[in-house]
Every structure is written in structure tokens, then in C-alpha cells.
Amino acid sequence: MYGKAFAPEYQGALTTLSVNSSLTDVLAEGIEKLREAERSGQPAEAARCGLAVAEAYRRLGKVGEADRAWKASYRTAREAGDAAAMAWALWSGGTLARQRGAFPLAWRLLGLAAELGERAGDVVCRGYSLAGLAETGRIQGDYAAVGRLHEQLLAEARRRGEARHTVWALEGIAQMHRNTGDFDRAYTLFEEAAEIAERAEDRRGHAWALRGLADILSVRDKDTKRALELLSRAEAGCRAMNLSSALAYNHKMRGNVLYRAERHEEARRMYELALSEFRAMNEPRGEALARLGLAKSLARLGRSRDETAAELADLASSLEGSGLKHVQRLVERAQEEFGLDAEVVR
After folding, report:
1. What is the pTM for the complete model shown?
2. Cβ–Cβ < 8 Å for 72, 92
């Protein structure tokens, strides 16, 4: 039913790159082909090579370079009169904005990308841009607003037999079920996503699915050993492709698994590692989650009640106006877990 996964963001002279290509290799080849296109006066080709450069920088956590690259790709595409390339550049910029926690900008850029992609007749760009909007809402915790869009995109991806997009949609829906307490449904969806990703050789999607399965095994079944085994498998895939963000979230999840198993010193070390990784790539959502896990671990290791209260209050304050509703709820839950009155400690 599903073919081999492909990477539509690798365009022009870079279409031969695999979805599993190392990001450092993608970046090197993308820059080389971009320079060749610029030298030969091919703005449309330069725009499409620049897209791969922007995406490689983004996934490697190099935010400043990614920001400059997508904007350059957009300007060059506009110069060439290539509406589809302009749409893809906007998609990249919107995805980067979401990664940086700039949610209003992400909504704007991804919405423009979807509209422009549709006008240009690029069905895939439209689908990726709508998926980006759905993911933005999901990350912010607005499940009611984007749940139907996730389901719509899943149906479209299944109909076209697009493995990578099907996996993405399954994982997004699974995460919403997990966060609302339906662990059985979440596990089934993560399991299907893992199977499809593995058959389609989508290493990135497979790593995220394994992370989801590990989470459920830990929280529902208390199966720490199996959860850690799955995270180790996922980590190997992340390292093979230099997936900085996915690796940081893997480490954060390993911290969660260890914390639930009351292995608090090991959890502390994992959260500290994840926190440093998220800060290096300017990823505010991941940073907040790692800070939360670290605060809870330190509290279990004997940190004073006042220090824990102050840390959680500071974290809650930093999240105000961020749009990260789900993370805010997790912080409130932690304050309740340690018997801290949110209103007093603020």
C-alpha cells in the first residue's frame, strides 16, 4: 500500500538525496549545488537547493543559519517567478518559527504557504503546510481545534499512499490521545506508525514512533526495561542522521522513563543533557519540558521545598503568553504533585 518514503523538500539537483541522508551530508551537498546554481544564473534552481540548506540547518539546530537560508530561498524564488518554490520556502520558515516557539509567525507563514502551494498546484506543499498548521496547534495544546485537520490529512495521505505523511499524522493523533489519557488508542496508533515507517525506510518517523511507544510502555505498563530498549533503538536512528531535535527529545523522554521508575539521579543527568541540547538549538518547548523534569528530579533528590517552589514558579511565569498550553498544564500538575500552591509561589 505504501511506497518507500521520500523527502519532497530535497528538490532540484538534490532530488537524489534520501529521506535518511545524514543532515551534514545534505547541508554540504545543498550548499555546493546552491553555489553552482548561483554561478550559472539559475535562480529557480538556487531557490530549491536553498530550501534543502534551510531544512538541514533547522534540523541541525542552527537557527540563525536556517532563518537566513529560508529567506534567501524565498527571495530567489520570487525573483524567478516560481510560486511553488516560494511556497516551500514559506513552509520552511513557518516550521522554523514553530521550532523557535514563535507560534503567531508560524501560523502566518504556514497559512501563506498552504494558500500559495494550492495556487501553484503543488499538492504536496499544500499538504505539508496544512500539516504544519495542525502540528502547531497540537504542540500548543489546542487539540479540539486541530484534531479534525489531523484526521483529514491522515485520510489524504493514506489515499495517496504517502508513507512519510501517514506516519506523521498517525504520530500526531497518537500524541493527542496519549496526552488526554487514552493510552491504549495511542499505543495502537504509534505501533502502526512504527510499522509503516520501518517498511518505508523512514528512519526519522520510525524514531519518533519508537519514542511514543516507549512513553506508553513506561506510563501505562511500568515496563521500564522495554521502554529504554526502544529509546536506544530510536537514538541510534537519530544519531545516524544527525537529528539534533529528535535526539534531544529522545533524551528528555529517557529522563521521563527513569523518573517514573524512581531512578531519580539517572533522570537528573538525562534532563540536564536534554536541557543543554534544547538550549543550544533555541528550542523553547523542549527547554521548558527538560527544565520541568529536572526540577522534579532535584526535588526527589532532596532539593528544598522553597527552591522547588521558586523554580516551578519561574518556569510557570516564563510560559505565560508562550502559547504552550499543554506544557503549562504539566507545570501546574507538578506544583500539585509537590503540594505547592501556584498562586502563593508566584
Report:
1. 0.91
2. no
